[in-house]
Amino acid sequence: MAAAEFVLLVTAATFTFLLVTTRAQAQSVGASCQQRDMDALLAFKQGINSDPNGILASWRSDGHGHEEDCCRWRGVRCSNRTGHVVELRLGNTDLYDGYALVGEISDSLLSLEHLEYLDLSMNSLEGSSGRIPDLVPPHLGNLSKLQYLDISGTQRLFERLPRCSPCKLQELHLQLNNLTGVLPNSMGHLSSLVILDLSGNNITGHLPESIGNFTSLMSLDLSNNNFTGDVPYEIGVLTDLSSLNLGYNSFDGVITEKHFGFLSNLQSLYLSDTSLKIEISSEWQPPFRLQYADFGNSKLGPSFPVWLRWMVGVYYLDISGTGINDRIPHWFSSTFSNCSFLDLGRNQIFGDLPRDMEMMSVERLYLNSNNLTGRVPPLPQNLTLLDISVNSLSGPLPLNLGSSKLIELTLFSNRISGHIPRYICKCNELAILDLANNLFEGKFPSCNEMTMLTTLELSNNSLSGEIPTFLQHSTNLQFLDLAWNKLSGGLPTWVGNLVGLQFLRLRHNMFTGNIPLSITNLGCLQYLDIAENGMSGSLPSHMVNFTTMTGKSSTTGYHIPPLFCGDYSVPGSYQSVSLSTFMKGQELNYRSSSDILYIKMMSMDLSLNNLSGEIPEEIVTLDALLNLNLSGNRLRGNIPYQIGAMESLESLDLSRNELSGEIPASLSNLASLSALDLSYNNLTGRIPSGSQLVSLYSLNPYIYTGNFGLCGPPLVHNCTNNETSMQSNYLRRSDEGVEFFYLGLGCGFIMGIWLVFCTLLFTKQWRILINFILQYL
């Protein structure tokens, strides 16, 4: 190569390098922001009254260098070429009102004519007018380059979408506002939209036919509104649509294959909680392959929808509560083999479960509340949740359930028999096990570790043996129900180690022995039922340690549970067997396990045992209790004098014991009491007065039956002069006791002095003392 050519080549390379470097530096630095745009942003800031996160702290113009360049302000991005503001990202990502911008939007934003992206979501920018300025029509033309607009979650009225001229807007997010009225046909002019989200508003009326103009639309979300009428067929021409959500509306028309004829790109379809009737021919082959499909609580039945057979790639499918009255088809396991979430619950599906379910990859499977029969087959190996409750399944469970990954296993209200398989012990992650209302028998298998359990529901079976000892290590346990079985033995002292326990029901078993004192360690306990057993001994002392039941603050009067107890942590989908409590003289049923958390289930029932001794006075500290039932025991002594302090009581049953003395006058202070039973005791004296007790007697005239020593209204037997009220008797006994004490003390003092005096009188020293005194008189 010649020297001249070499020099030329080096010079060219150097020039090229300098040119690229200069351009890179220019792009990295970027052009300074335009004064007009800066003024518009500062005017916007003037309308902000509160900025907890300091988002606008950098928005300053104080003559100090780069701080005047609005392109460097937080949330602002400018064009590197022109310096015009093209993006404004001020959305509240914390999704919490305490961090939101508060104030009002200045019309100055309309001066940002080059703005392409505007996000003001999850803030409170309505100002005193209670509305956002008309950034979207009729002034949208001022922001003709806008492609993305998100003002969702402002919680206020964003008025109308009419008179909109064509523009470049591609994304419009107006969800979680308080939009009202109907959608006008003119909104079809927004034909460049790719994403339209109007969910979570109060929009009414029909969906306009101009929806078909959104030919570029890929995502349409109209859920959680009040749309009515038919879904227009024009929605079927949106060939680019991949996600369609019409759920939680009042649509009441018919959906046919014509609505989906050209939606070849559709991947997500949500029609849940509408009144839409889905009528699609069994011969139709859809042009799409759904990944997410939610038809829950729509009208899909009565036949099992055959067109779903083509959804071989579906990942999430909900067809619960859709009126299907049919068998599970033979292609079920193969078609949905890769489905992760599958819900067929609350239908009228009958027949057997598929025998080839083991091949499926499903993780969460709901088949509850149907008419399924036959035996439970081996389960899919990836199952973490199975709910086949409220069916007619029978026979024993398979020895190998198939999945050791189970977190929730809910089989209640079937006719499943035999022993609980030992394989259950391998489910180390199991948190919820509900086998109630079945025909299980024998002992619960001896498991080494089930430490993750929060809920164990085994009631209404024929289980025998003692309380499973492995439970002493289940320190996460919050809900334990072993009622209506054949369990025996004593209550173990380690029950007091389950300090998070909130619900304990051992009713109708064969437990014996004393109630262990350690039970009062359960400060989170809200519901205690050990009724209908053979428990003996006295009531546990230190009841004040039931801190959740002792939940009244003396200063505020509000229920204050212990901070460490928290809420009963069950998944929102979990629906337990119907629970019951004996209260107000009848059995009250509660449908969901979560209902027991309400204070209305704050209950203690120790009835129908062999408990003896007195009712401890400290029981009156349990002032959050709504139900106290100690009936059918051998309790003696007086009713606690301060029972009126249990001001939350709605039901009190102390009947069929050996209680004596008078009815405390404070009982009439229980304003919430609506059921009372003191019958068949040895109570005496005048019945306390009070309108509350009169009302209770009128509802149940047997509340005092079997107490032959009671007198006074409302009973026919009048009190004699020797029969006085409890208050006067109590005060008289108290006064007499005090007077007798001081009288005895005084008499004893005087008698002591005379005794000393007489003793000295007959001693030699006393005679010498008298002679000495007489010599000097």
TrEMBL record:
Q: What is the residue range of the signal peptide feature?
A: 1-26
Q: Where are the transmembrane segments?
A: 740-762
GO cellular component annotations of the record: plasma membrane
Matching entries from Gene3D superfamilies are given as: Ribonuclease Inhibitor (3.80.10.10)
Places the protein is found: Cell membrane
Topologically, how does it sit relative to the membrane? Single-pass type I membrane protein
List keywords of the entry alphabetically: Brassinosteroid signaling pathway, Cell membrane, Glycoprotein, Leucine-rich repeat, Membrane, Repeat, Signal, Transmembrane, Transmembrane helix
Question: Which domain of life, per UniProt?
Answer: Eukaryota
Q: What GO biological process terms does the UniProt entry carry, in alphabetical order?
A: brassinosteroid mediated signaling pathway
Per UniProt, residues of the Disease resistance R13L4/SHOC-2-like LRR domain are 137-319
Q: Which Pfam families match?
A: LRR_1, LRR_14, LRR_8, LRRNT_2
Annotated Leucine-rich repeat-containing N-terminal plant-type domain residues: 36-79
Family matches, as InterPro entries: Leu-rich_rpt (IPR001611), Leu-rich_rpt_typical-subtyp (IPR003591), LRR_dom_sf (IPR032675), LRR_N_plant-typ (IPR013210), LRR_R13L4/SHOC2-like (IPR055414), RLP23-like (IPR046956)
Family the entry assigns:
Belongs to the RLP family.
Name assigned to this protein: Leucine-rich repeat-containing N-terminal plant-type domain-containing protein
User: What organism, scientifically named, is this protein from?
Assistant: Digitaria exilis
